[in-house]
Amino acid sequence: MKGEAGSAQKYFDKVPQEWDALYSSENWFMYIVNRFIRQGLFDRYALTFKYCGEVADKEVLDIGCGTGRFSVEFARRGAARVTGLDFAGSMVDFSRKAAQAMGFAERCDFVCADFLAQNFNRKFDIVIAMGFFDYIKDAQVILRKIHSLTNGVFIASFPRPRLFWDIQRKIRYNLIKKCNIYSYTKKDLERLYKAAGFSDFKIIQMGGGYFVAAKIHS
């Protein structure tokens, strides 16, 4: 993998434990800290399952699954099969171990691959991409492929432009961690979703970004 995607992959390969601490209550101190300073992460976690509705017996695709917290929760709620995809091998390894430890390994399949290069050969009832588009320069091609893979619900998050926040994030990620990040306005999202073929979608502003819930009507 080359260029920007390769830089992001290198960064995420180094931080599975740190990243998992954003959601995990196992490290109680970091969990409390994150609940205080990153409440938006927990709010969008709750909204994801609210807008997905009943997930029992559904096929789920989790794009940019990270350490598998969303994937395992889908399995816990009764999803028939959950496919978690991430281009960072260490994240995928962490996800597999987490699913095994929580007793849901038989319903979770974690794949280390680039989303655009992966051939799925089927459609999914639910597709999510949480914290994924922060690192995507060309969201249009991604959204078009997602539209082709979705039978029902597509949930995603996007960071929005904020002057001070953008400056410090670009310093931390673009310059120090060599992992480029991107932001989107509401107009950007409306244009991108419509161009990708989505006609029924809701954009919710929350914290430092947007939560977008879209539906495909068969």
How would you characterize this protein structure?
By secondary structure, the chain is an alpha/beta fold. The protein has 9 helices and 7 strands, in the order ααααβαβαββαβααββ. It has helices at residues 3-13, 16-20, 28-37, 39-52, 69-76, 89-101, 139-149, 163-176, 186-196; strands spanning 59-63, 81-86, 108-112, 124-129, 150-159, 200-206, 209-215. It starts with a helix and ends with a strand.
Major pleated sheet: 7 strands, mixed
The H-and-E topology, N to C, reads as: HHHHEHEHEEHEHHEE
Number of strands: 7
What oligomeric state is this?
Answer: single chain
Q: Termini distance?
A: 36 Å
Q: What is the CATH T-level topology? A: Rossmann fold
What fraction of residues sit in β-strands?
Answer: 15-25%
From the helix content, strand content and strand pairing, which structural class follows? alpha/beta
Our Rg estimate from Cα atoms comes to 16 Å
CATH class identity: Alpha Beta
Can you name the CATH architecture? Answer: 3-Layer(aba) Sandwich
Number of domains: 1
User: How many DSSP H or I helices?
Assistant: 9
Mean pLDDT: 82
The CATH fourth-level homologous superfamily: Vaccinia Virus protein VP39
Side-by-side strand order of the widest sheet: 3-2-1-4-5-7-6
Tell me the overall shape.
Answer: globular
Tell me roughly what share of residues is in helical segments.
40-55%
Low-confidence stretches: 1-16, 32-37
Task: Please outline what is shown here.
This protein is an alpha/beta fold and about 220 residues long. The chain has helices spanning about 5-15, 15-20, 30-35, 40-50, 70-75, 90-100, 140-150, 165-175, 185-195, and strands at about 60-65, 80-85, 110, 125-130, 150-160, 200-205, 210-215. The protein has 9 helices and 7 strands.
